[in-house]
Amino acid sequence: MSQQSDILNELNDRSREVFRRVVEGYLESGEPVGSRTLTRELSEKVSAATIRNVMQDLEYLGLLDSPHVSAGRVPTQQGLRMFVDGLLEVQDLDQSDQQKIDATLGDNAGDVGAMLDRVGSALSGVTRGASLVLAPKHEAPIRHIEFVSLGHDRAMVVLVMADGHVENRLFTPPPGQTPSSMREAANFLNALIEGKTLSELQTVMRGEIEKRQQEIDVLSRTLIDQGLAAWADDGDSPERLIVRGRSNLLDTGQSEGDLDLIRTLFDDLERKRDIAGFLELADQGEGVRIFIGSENKLFSLSGSSLVVSPYMNADRKIVGAVGVIGPKRLNYGRIVPIVDYTAQLVGKLISDRT
């Protein structure tokens, strides 16, 4: 980030304006921007040859790229990141966009899942992109836990809450787990529950592990020293994800290659690959965050961008996130305030229910 800031600070006014107009032109049209186009738009009158020299310098710095033999340029991922961090002008939330979101989410009746499904539909409709909504986990005290094996690499945990709420979550069990070992694990956890929430149960489990860690260390040290054993730690905590607006990404006039990348993106989403880390993207501070292309491993193959913001409950605890997926040439200045407003609205609706 600091290196990009240094590069931006070192650009003179002409180079900075050329760079900004190339990026803005690309985000608007999706097409390379040429020197002749810029000669008509720049605030100072300079020749096309001068602009071409500036664009070559920007390409040398890794900020622009030439996709074809034409003279037009497009921003690189590094260039887009520098533009978003240093030159992006975030617009005020458009009143019509706000009204559409408010109208869709105005009804706070029904369960949280239905409300968040409407959030996804609203975001997708307003932005013409694909929306992501990470639903909060139910944190009522647990009455009973059950593990159900669905195959060698697929299982489901059934959580029965003290308030009568029942929640099913799919997960990938560690290798070697059998239906009988899952029953034993459920029996062990049920003996510890005693009205605890899932997070409280996790705290108890960590305490149990810490109590026995010294004993385990003593017993296992010899085996480890002899190379007969080794520690292994593999955790997985998949989140529920709501995806809306798939057709929006598949109907944007993009090339067949782009469509193949987008289909790859949705294949990843539907298999819930890397979803466990989705909330962590937004859990590093308040406000909207922007991930471009390979900056987010979930979208590294598709080259898509993600604009995401966390939402909080009444205790100011981050419990979920909302976001919009689109091509790298998203209208970031318009999307950012929409995502920010929707996240704040969802947080308020969640807080009003508690």
Automatic annotation (TrEMBL):
It holds the Pfam family HrcA. Belongs to the HrcA family. The keyword Repressor applies. Negative regulator of class I heat shock genes (grpE-dnaK-dnaJ and groELS operons). Prevents heat-shock induction of these operons. Residues 11-78 form the Winged helix-turn-helix transcription repressor HrcA DNA-binding domain. Residues 115-336 form the Heat-inducible transcription repressor HrcA C-terminal domain. The keyword NADP does not apply. This is Heat-inducible transcription repressor HrcA. It comes from the Bacteria. Keywords: Repressor, Stress response, Transcription, Transcription regulation. It comes from Cognatishimia coralii. The lineage of its organism: Bacteria, Pseudomonadati, Pseudomonadota, Alphaproteobacteria, Rhodobacterales.
